[in-house]
Design brief:
four-stranded antiparallel beta sheet; five-stranded mixed beta sheet; 329 residues; alpha+beta; 11 strands; globular
């Protein structure tokens, strides 16, 4: 990485902020005390309508944790991580201690290079299949973090997921509270430090496909474009329930996203079914035998698009005495 940083920890904190989050809300904050970092959920940036249980926000924090840990490793540091969400302090998600030195692996260095290139591509993908070998590499990335992927080829399950996505998109389009919340975070000016700017918005679909684009991330002023009719969908799953499972799911998700980026693949999220009560329950039931489903990824080949900006590290990091607690995991 070519950008200058004062310390390896400064670089790691910057890498952490490059994680994805719903509407680019960036729902994390970090407490730093020497070689110890605490990761906290920032409730002021949780979507209260779309994500009332902060499930997606914790998933994003898990992705930020993955980036931070990875960056320390490739810079020769050994991060010791404890995952800490518990009833007594649910917003303290993890503690990271820099404890010694290590030698990074080529695979870690490749993923670290992808951190500052990965971004959500909401625009049309090419009608080009993702080779089986690359799909297998994504599976391995999930397994490395204790999760798994399910690739939804055209099938009855694919059709059910597509129906749920369309149903959720309709419910959201007719929900004034959801629309008001989305409006606060979208259609931002270029270079906005958070939210989704118009430069990252998607053009309208010329023809309706199996999976709808997210209406709140569309720019009706752009010319209509043709999208792939049956995009490759990948379900990210892990074991467990509750806040800890969400955090672990974020680690799995980010491992997959960075691997996809390193392989030249584009990705975006199919989040609508997770954000309405009716469709979320149906989606969880559909995957119950496989594990806890955290997110759905659209994967394929797309043209280059501009990344969204992030808040300066100084806005998300507090340096001083941190508060910690909780059992090791």
């Amino acid at each position: 990485m070519s950008r200058p940083f004062a310390t390896e920890l400064d670089q790691a904190l910057t890498a952490a902020t490059r994680a994805p989050s719903p509407h680019n809300t960036q729902p994390w904050r970090f407490e730093v005390d020497g070689d110890r970092v605490e990761l906290w959920l920032d409730h002021d940036r949780v979507l209260t309508v779309a994500d009332p249980d902060a499930r997606e926000a914790r998933l994003s924090c898990g992705a930020a944790l993955f980036n931070l840990r990875l960056s320390l490793r490739v810079n020769g540091k050994e991060p010791r991580v404890r995952l800490l969400p518990e009833p007594g302090s649910p917003d303290l998600l993890a503690e990271i201690r820099i404890d010694g030195v290590r030698r990074s692996t080529p695979a870690e260095r490749e993923l670290a290079e992808a951190v500052f290139h990965r971004h959500t591509n909401r625009r049309p993908f090419l009608d080009q299949q993702v080779p089986r070998g690359l799909q297998a590499a994504l599976n391995t990335a999930a397994l490395t973090e204790g999760g798994q992927l399910e690739h939804l080829e055209p099938s009855a399950r694919y059709d059910t997921v597509a129906v749920l996505a369309r149903r959720a998109e309709f419910l959201q389009a007719t929900d004034e509270s959801f629309q008001a919340e989305s409006a606060r975070w979208t259609r931002r000016s270029a270079g906005s430090a958070d939210g989704v700017p118009l430069t990252a918005a998607a053009p309208p679909a010329r023809h309706a496909g199996a999976v709808p684009q997210r209406g709140s991330h569309a720019n009706a002023e752009l010319p209509a474009r043709s999208y792939e009719q049956q995009p490759l969908l990948v379900a990210v799953l892990s074991g467990g329930q509750g806040a800890l499972a969400d955090l672990r799911g974020g680690l799995v998700m980010q491992s997959v996203l960075l691997t996809a980026t390193s392989l030249g693949l584009a990705t975006s999220f199919v989040s609508q079914p997770f954000e309405t009560t009716e469709t979320r329950a149906a989606l969880e039931a559909l995957f119950r035998d496989s594990g806890r489903v955290h997110t759905l990824l659209r994967v394929g080949y797309g043209y280059a698009t501009p990344p969204t900006a992030r808040r300066p590290v100084t806005e998300v990091v507090h340096r001083g005495a941190a508060q910690t607690g909780g059992p090791s995991t």
